[in-house]
Specification:
Helix content is 20%, strand content 30%. The protein is an alpha+beta fold and 761 residues long. The chain binds alpha-D-galactopyranose.
Length: 761
């Protein structure tokens, strides 16, 4: 790891693990991208900027500087001077002129990494130090300074980037667009990969050919969104989980974004990422500065799997701050799908009592405990406990649940206000709205104007007062609508274009206060399921509710897409009742458990009402969770097969860092009659080690020993099997498991699943 400046060649070389990022100067003025890829360590690589060919640099080819502007691989391209590709910065002056030219002024190489004020960002640790390059550029005509920041860490392949803009003049500037990062490469035939979806279908992977022009994913919803994710990757045509080049960008931000890959006239590719410019204008008064959020750049030559593991390690080692990051989280039961709004104190205590018997460790009281909220159209903002419903104070209820032996967690939706609430009647001007127009309602609610300090204070105190009043261990912080009618009674006219970003900064400020006052609080973010599952929120909470869709089969795709970037320990996953509330699908209880084990694990069902056979399985599932949690939380993730691709089965694995233990989860989504056993190739093991294989899950039914067995063979013993490992009696070499694979018999029925554990002997 390290950053060096090569004076003679005018090159900045940043090395991060096996990757290298090289920046060059053209004409001693223009900051250009030389290279990002596998480490080359050769100071002679500057020619890759192609300044030795037409149109040359402006000092040589004075009559055609426009062609230079439109082809040079700018590290931070700006608008208005002939670069017609997507640019990163658009500046308007007070007089209404646009256009900017940033030229290199000086640089600094710093030990460590400065924090980004008010923004979530990666940081150095004792085990993983880092260095930062600050490239200072300026536009003298605008008196604008731009500090381009790049950091690398000792223990990561990633490069992280952000930019700070400073108005050093005497007149205000209007920043109409500020992206955070740009990356160039020669294009050729490549694919682009994004994560797309909808409510209850978040983060499905989509891969398509990269054509000419601009291919963008974005959000204009005020949050990172269910629909498109602040991530984009460009990959070789033949790249798969294990091999091929991948270039990825991921945004540490929770609001509007744009992520783009643009193939231009000379088959060069420009990737860009930043805050979406639509609806954004930042008024930069003289002396003020603006910092754009951070982008993570990852290069992998080991396909998507290599990219995934770089992101997982970066987020675990350099982004998530919670003390729970490396701790086992309590197994919780949430009452949302169990009761919805129809609960009272006794009902919750009853659930807690039954849950305790099965080994569950925490009860989470979801929506409906405050104001007079028994439906979703009122009381948001009125965070006063409904003592009639809880049959006592909140403290009474928490104490009752604690007496049952469970910790207590609670749901809030702090950023919102219901039109039907005391808060809205008293402060209608606290909602985001355009004067003279009733705001659009989504789920019968409005969004609070978090750009206002007094609104932030009200929200914080309302939440904190509840948390101070009782022994509460966990908060689910929800956010259930997108932003519309983006106007603030508080902001001055020239600052209205700042509201969307100021709103996100307000969310960050609130959560920062919360984790500061309550450092041992386990915080789980949520947004109508997973609409704000992004790296920004991970800086505050070690886990995020992944989707309102708890159906085990739907979760395969949702969790596959989520785990492409996020460690399994961050993925909120619960076992729920069947028929599933969203899809109506019925899956085996064991399978629901196996899928939820690839996440935070918990329950979301009425344990007092589910079938006794299911209830009996919980104890075994909880036992499995305790056994597997450290491995799932800390291990390396490998994708082995994807139901989205093969339409039959899904398979993934987690391998401990020392390769001593591994878990492979196999879900046979659709049973196939009269078929061979399926061959699964393990990944990530030590080829030279030997492993004992253990199996957990329902017994094989069907063609054991090639002998057609009765369909219901062994069905009776399933509950006892859950949570127990059966030694296969076999020891396999790592080589055999990875290159030869194991054979899995056809399981009986759709949606059947099985766990395989490999322990080094
Ligand atoms: C959102 C969340 C759910 C639940 C409800 C409560 O939809 O994603 O888990 O908390 O709100 O209203």
């Amino acid at each position: 790891m390290g950053i060096v400046f090569k004076e003679e060649q005018k090159l900045f070389r940043l090395t991060a693990g096996q990757s290298e990022y090289v920046i060059g100067l053209a004409d001693d003025r223009y900051v250009g991208h030389v290279y990002f890829g596998r480490r080359i360590e050769d100071d002679g690589c500057g020619y890759l900027m192609r300044t030795g060919e037409m149109p040359y640099v402006p000092s040589i080819n004075k009559r055609e500087t426009g062609a230079f502007m439109d082809t040079f691989p700018f590290e931070y391209p700006v608008q208005g001077r002939g670069d017609y590709r997507e640019t990163c910065l658009v500046v308007r002056t007070q007089e209404g002129f646009r256009g900017c030219e940033l030229v290199y002024k000086e640089h600094r190489i710093l030990e460590g990494k400065p924090a980004l004020l008010g923004l979530p960002a990666t940081f150095c640790t004792e085990q993983g130090g880092g260095q930062t390059l600050e490239l200072v550029c300026e536009d003298k005509a605008l008196s604008l300074k731009a500090i381009l920041r790049y950091s690398v860490f000792e223990d990561s392949e990633a490069v992280v980037r952000s930019v700070e803009l400073v108005n050093e003049g005497t007149k205000p500037l209007y920043l109409e667009k500020v992206f955070s990062a740009c990356l160039h490469m020669d294009c050729g035939q490549r694919d682009v990969l994004t994560l797309n979806g909808a409510w209850a279908r978040e983060r499905h992977m989509e891969r398509r050919a990269l054509g000419y022009g601009r291919q963008q994913v974005s959000s204009l919803r005020g949050e990172s969104s269910h629909q498109e994710h602040p991530f984009i990757a460009v990959l070789d045509k033949n790249a798969d989980q294990d091999q091929g080049q991948v270039y990825a960008m991921h945004f540490i931000y929770s609001g509007n974004f744009a992520a783009q890959a643009e193939r231009s006239q000379f088959d060069s590719l420009r990737m860009t990422m930043g805050i979406h410019p639509e609806g954004f204008t930042w008024f930069l008064a003289p002396g003020e500065s603006f910092t754009a959020p951070e982008v993570v750049l990852v290069y992998s030559q080991e396909g998507l799997g290599g990219m995934t593991r770089t992101f997982h390690d970066l987020y675990r080692n350099h982004l998530i701050r919670s003390p729970y990051l490396h701790e086992k989280r309590p197994v919780l039961i949430n009452n949302w799908e169990a009761t919805y709004f129809d609960f009272n104190g006794d009902k919750l205590v009853h659930i807690a009592r039954e849950a305790k018997k099965r080994g569950i460790e925490m009860l989470v009281m979801d929506d409906g405990w405050f104001g007079c909220r028994n439906t979703d159209d009122n009381s948001l903002g009125d965070w006063t406990v409904n003592e009639k419903k809880l049959q006592g104070t909140l403290k009474n209820l928490v104490d009752r649940v604690r007496e049952e032996g469970l910790q207590f967690g609670i749901w809030f939706e702090p950023e919102m206000v219901s039109p039907d609430s005391r808060l809205y009647r008293e402060h209608p001007d606290w909602a985001i709205a355009v004067p003279g127009r009733d705001p659009v309602q989504i789920r019968a609610q409005y969004v609070l104007d978090l750009s206002r300090p007094e609104v932030q204070d009200y929200v914080y105190e309302a939440v904190a007062a509840v948390l101070r009043s009782a022994d509460i261990s966990y908060v689910k912080w929800d956010m259930n609508r997108q932003l519309t009618d983006v106007g603030s009674c508080y902001l001055a006219q020239e600052r209205q274009g700042e509201l969307l970003h100021r709103y996100v900064l307000g969310v960050y400020a609130l959560q920062e206060r919360l984790v500061t006052e309550f450092p041992r609080l386990l915080l789980e973010n949520c947004s109508g399921g997973g609409a704000r599952f992004d790296p920004g929120m991970l800086y505050y909470s070690p886990q995020i509710w992944c989707s309102d869709d708890t159906d085990a089969v739907e979760r395969l795709a949702i969790q596959e897409g989520t785990a492409l970037l996020y460690p399994l320990s961050t993925i909120g996953a619960h076992v729920s009742d069947c028929p599933n509330h969203i899809t109506g699908r019925v899956t085996p209880f064991a399978t629901r458990g196996h899928v939820a084990l690839a996440g935070t694990f918990g329950y979301e069902l009425d344990i007092t009402h589910i079938p006794e056979t299911d209830r009996m399985e919980i104890e075994g599932q909880v036992r499995l969770y305790h056994q597997l949690q450290p491995l799932v939380r800390e291990g390396d993730y490998y994708r082995i097969a994807s139901f989205g691709e093969n339409h039959r089965y899904d398979c993934w694995a987690v391998v401990s860092k020392d390769k001593g233990e591994a878990l492979m989860t196999y879900v046979q989504v659709l049973a196939e009659p009269n078929y061979h056993s399926r061959r699964l190739l393990m990944k990530g093991l030590d080829a030279d080690a030997w492993y004992r294989m253990e199996i957990s899950g329902p017994e094989y039914a069907g063609r054991e020993n090639n002998c057609p067995a009765a369909a219901d063979t062994n069905q009776g013993n399933q509950q006892e099997d859950v949570g127990r490992w059966k030694d296969s009696g076999q020891v396999y070499s790592g080589r055999l498991l990875m290159y030869g694979g194991i054979l899995v018999e056809t399981l009986y029925g759709d949606y059947a699943s099985r766990l395989f554990r490999f322990v080094r002997v």
